[in-house]
Amino acid sequence: MLTTLIYRSQLDSSCHSDALNVLVDHARLRNAALGITGIMLYNGQDILQVLEGSEEQVEALFQRIVMDKRHAFVVELMRDYGPRRRFENVGMLLFDLQISSPKTVLQSVLRYSKLESYIVSDDRVFKFIQSFITRENNARQHRDKPAEAWTLSCEPHPLGEPLGLIAGQSCQFALQPIVEPYEGKISSFEMLIRGNDGGNPEQFFANLDSAKIYEVDLQTKAYAFALAKSLKIGSHKIAVNLLPMSLVNVPGAVEFLVEQIQLSGLQPEQVIIEVTENEMISGFNTFNKAIKALRGTGIGFAIDDFGSGYAGLSLLTKFQPDKIKIDREIISNVHLSGPKQAIVKSIVSCCTDLEITLVAEGIEKLEEWRWLESAGIRRFQGFLFARPQLNGVGDIHWPHMLR
Ligand SMILES: Cc1cc2nc3c(=O)[nH]c(=O)nc-3n(C[C@H](O)[C@H](O)[C@H](O)COP(=O)(O)O)c2cc1C
């Protein structure tokens, strides 16, 4: 199937215009043999390339291009399918914005294209091209301190040695810190439920009597608060996950939480209840009442896995939590994906206007963290910084700039 792929990247400073011209001359011949057509735009720093051809050939070429050391920060912007090519007779053509004015480049691109003007005006490919030509490029902001300029150093068990399995409990908890790397600060700990042998939470919930699921879900929080006390978390905040219906279906749920929090010597303001976006949407009206009661006590409220459900940002028209955790699916490889970057930017902008704290979870790569910091996110959770540790806090890996 005819596929169009567009990506953006930054040419290495060692690769000058002359070298780029040679590269494109070679590419033109190779592409012609592979049935690939397209154009490349260059503004002295950034590249925008359009590749069109069979899905297999375009994908194979893109994989080669991504690995090419002559450019960096390759971000895929678009992948689409269509009935015909935009640049039929061009194996690869370079348009250098340093040599010609934006207007001339735009006119040349349109001249080379084989599409009628009524198609061009609504065509996403041409919109990407037009924006690149006319707009000050927006990739520049990510150029300052790339992932390679950073390294990680280990802070072992900040709260002392983990406690090991705690006897006599139906479940255990593993703590994973949420960190602010620039500040070198732990902002809170998420307490993740585990089976009574430390095993995964699915197993724990699968073994429960379905009639008791909400009651048990609520009661387990007492173990979490007691553990926070044993670990001497001090003034740190803790976050626990709760099924929203546990607040609705179990009588006196909010009072129970406050009582257990106080019994463990914590303040309600130190505790954040996390609920996933999907769960919130399904029972919003009933749930909203319970949330009001919860907030009335000072307990914080966060939406987990934000972006995974279909309500998305419209959920925020009905309800604004203290904190939003962006779904890991959006975070994963965000540095490589234009659509993911656009979604994160819109969430950042919305949460900035609404003064909602943002956390990016599931961070595994320095590149993901670098991109998210440059987009304005300050709090992070993920294996890159710290793994969950049963009944304790594991090593934290803090990023540092290499000299
Ligand atoms: C910005 C940029 C764009 C490129 N575009 C193409 C292209 O359109 N076609 C192509 O064959 N090679 C292109 N290359 C070169 C490929 O990355 C790669 O070097 C080339 O396909 C040879 O791959 P091989 O040595 O694995 O055979 C491009 C490289 C860069 C840095």
Would you spell out the secondary-structure blueprint of this structure?
Layout: E1 2-11, H1 17-34, E2 37-42, E3 46-54, H2 55-67, E4 71-81, E5 93-96, H3 102-112, H4 117-120, H5 124-134, E6 150-155, E7 171-180, E8 185-195, H6 201-206, H7 213-230, E9 237-241, H8 244-249, H9 253-263, E10 271-276, H10 277-282, H11 284-296, E11 300-306, H12 315-318, E12 323-326, H13 328-331, H14 338-353, E13 357-361, H15 366-374, E14 379-381, E15 389-390, E16 396-401
Parallel strand pairs: 2-5, 8-9, 9-10, 10-11, 11-12, 12-13, 13-14
Antiparallel strand pairs: 1-3, 1-4, 2-3, 6-16, 7-8, 7-15
Helix pairs in contact: 3-5, 7-9
Flavin mononucleotide (FMN) binds near residues 23, 64 and 70.
Describe the model.
Helices cover 37% and strands 26% of the residues. It is α/β, with parallel strands linked by helices and 403 residues long. A nine-stranded mixed β-sheet has the order 14-13-12-11-10-9-8-7-15. Helix 3 (102-112) runs antiparallel to helix 5 (124-134) and helix 7 (213-230) packs parallel to helix 9. The chain is built from 15 helices and 16 strands. Residues 137-142 have low confidence and may be disordered. The chain folds into two domains: 2-143, Alpha-Beta Plaits, CATH 3.30.70.100; 148-401, EAL domain (TIM Barrel, Alpha-Beta Barrel). It has helices spanning 17-34, 55-67, 102-112, 117-120, 124-134, 201-206, 213-230, 244-249, 253-263, 277-282, 284-296, 315-318, 328-331, 338-353, 366-374, and strands spanning 2-11, 37-42, 46-54, 71-81, 93-96, 150-155, 171-180, 185-195, 237-241, 271-276, 300-306, 323-326, 357-361, 379-381, 389-390, 396-401. Residues 9, 23, 27, 30-31, 47, 49, 61, 64-65, 68, 70-71, 92 line the site of flavin mononucleotide.
